[in-house]
Each structure stands twice: as C-alpha cells, then as structure tokens.
Amino acid sequence: MTGLLVAIWSAPAALMIVQSLMFDGGLGESLVRDGAPWVVWVAVTPRVLARADAGALRGRRLVGHIARALAIAALFGAITGALTYAVRPVHKLTFAGEIAMAITDWVPMQALVYAGVLATGMALDAARRRRAAELGRAQLETQLAYAQLAALRAQLQPHFLFNTLNAAVALARDGDAGGTARVLVLLGDLLRQLLRADAPQEIPLREELDLLATYLEIQRVRLGDRLRVEWAIADDVRDALVPQLVLQPLVENALQHGIARRTRAGQLAIRAARDGDRLRLQVSDDGPGVAAGFSLAAATGVGLRNTRDRLHRLYGERGALALATRGALTTAAIELPMREAGHG
Q: CA 321 to CA 299: how far, in whole Å?
C-alpha cells in the first residue's frame, strides 16, 4: 500500500518540480522545496480513505473532514515554507513569514486535493458495498437453488423407496421369501448410498450407473426373464458429472409404463455418449409407448417432473429432458453440459 501511495503522489510532486525548474530554481532546491512536502499525503491518505464512506458528508463528520482538510493543507504549507527558507540562499522574508506565505498560498489547493482524495475514497467504498451486495445476492440465490434441489431430491427418495418396497411386498405376497430377502438386501445397499448427509447434487456417471445397476437387480428379482437390459456407455463419459438419481426415475418410468405391462420379455436400453460439449443420456424401452397427446411439460409423475425441474435448476437452458416414441421404442433423453469430476 505504501509503495502504491508513493507512486501516486510522486506524480503531482514531479509536476511541481518541473514547473519550478522552468521558472526559478535549481534541481536540488526544487526537489526539496516542491517535491518533499508531498510525503505528507503518503502519510495521511490511508486515514482519509478510512473515513470516506456514504456518511462522510453528513453533520459532524462533514465538519471533521473540513477541519482535517484545513489542518493538512496548513501542514503542507508550513513544511513547504520551512523547506523553502532552508534551501533559499537569499531571504526576503523571515522564517515565520515564509511559512505564513506558504500556508496562504497552499491552503486552497490542498483543501481541493483533500476533497479529491475523499471523493475517491467514497467512490471506492460505494464500489465495495455494491460488490458486497451483489455477492450477498448471489450467495442467497445459490442457497435458495440448493435448498430447492434438496427439496426435489427429498421428494424423489421416498418415491423411489416406496416403489421398491412395493416390489418387495408383491414378492412376499407371492410367497417368494428368497426374492423378498434379496430385494431388501439390495435396497439396504442403495439406501446407504442415497441417504448420506453429505451426498452431493452431482456425482460421476460411473457412480450413478452403479446405483442404477443395483436398482435394476431389484427389478430383475421382481420381473425375472421379462427384463432384458442393454448397456451402451461410452468409456469417455464415465467420469462426467450428472445429478444423482437422474437415470433411475427414467428407468422406473420405462419399467412401470412399458415393460411391466407386457407379458413377454421387454428390452431396456441405457445409453450414454458425448456430443461435443454436451452429454447425452438415453433410456429406451420397447413397451406400448406414450399415450396420445402426452406432454412432458404437463406430466404429474414425481420422477419425470422432478428430473425436469432438477435439470433446469442445475443447468438452466443447457439441461433438457425429452420423451418420445418412434417406431417400437420409447426414449427418454437427457442433455446436459459435459463436465468431468475434478475439472470444475
């Protein structure tokens, strides 16, 4: 800070020295008489800036600034007068007279210099306050967004839990004790991962696929040979960041509205690939397809609605969910920015 102040106040000092050299002084005399007094401002500027805020020009504080401005101006003039007397070989005035004349000459200009320093300080303070306010608003918006995301995930987890428990209940009613036990063990494995207090909103795709594989193992216990799964995951996207539980609701939707309604085996395909700076995730099934007039925007199901809302809150316009039937396949497709774990 001191170095910066020295550099700043060297500018007016240099101008005064040049002016003195042009008219009535030698180099040594000009350096002492016209350059040295500006050291005063190196010393007092931090104190002036410390008092420069939005209330600096109100009431007693304004009076205080006027008094300080006059005092600093008088000090500057007195130092200039004393140095002038010290370096001038012939004296037309006494020491006191030289000081008095210098104070008279310098007070108006130095008072204006003080006003300039004070105005600069007030501008800097206003800029700091504005940045702090903007940062505070951004932090509040971020906190709100994460609170909303947490609420969406909190809705999704019980929904997922209840549907999985229903699968266990159905197996129990059918007298399949082994299948029921297997579902509950797998469910316990899933819950240990899902219900962590420190669970992030985004996880690497490979971890999401591990969760999904366990979930599909539960469904395979329930559906048996009626469920066939095809995986097509590109190697270069396994570390891509995705919202936790982003695929499970799409798979659940495909199973509930597609494969589970069929008496014969159904095909479920899960794909992930990179497309430039985008990550594409797809869940397809060969079930009966979506109903005529279906609108994803008007969907009321927890899984699809929450997935759409989470993508929007996390990625804005860069996150999208689409659902369509083409030929024998119904495909739920997600697009989001391609970002790898550890790369921000």
A: 12
E strand or H helix at 153: helix 95-173
Q: What are phi and psi of 343, to 5 degrees?
A: -115, 5
d(Cα 142, Cα 201) in Å, to the nearest integer?
A: 13
pTM of the model: 0.53
Residue 227: φ, ψ to 5°: -110, 120
The Cβ-side half-sphere exposure at 126, using a 13 Å CA radius, reads: 9
Beta bridge partners of 269: 230, 284
Compute how many other C-beta atoms are within 10 angstroms of the C-beta atom of residue 45: 21
Three-state DSSP class for 169? helix
Q: pLDDT at position 160, please?
A: 65
For the segment 283-301, the average pLDDT, to the nearest whole number, is 68
- Strand 266-275, strand 227-233: pairing: parallel
Q: Which residues lie below 8 Å from residue 232, measured CB to CB, with a gap of 6+? A: 269, 270, 271, 272, 273
| Rama region for 265: left / alpha / beta (φ>0; ψ in -120 to 50; rest) | beta
With tokens 């999208």, the residue in question is 320
DSSP 194-243: HT-TT--SEEEHHHHHHHHHHHHHHHHHHHGGGEEEEEEE-GGGTTBEEE
Does residue 254 contact residue 283 with C-beta atoms inside 8 Å? Answer: yes
Q: How far, in whole angstroms, is CA 124 from its chain's centroid?
A: 24
DSSP symbols for 111-136: HHHHHHHHHHHHHHHHHHHHHHHHHH
Q: Token pair for residue 182?
A: 């297997």
Residue 231, pLDDT > 90, answer: yes
Q: Alpha-carbon distance 207 to 202, whole Å?
A: 10
pLDDT digits (tens, 9 = 90+) for 85-111: 888 766 777 888 888 988 888 888 889
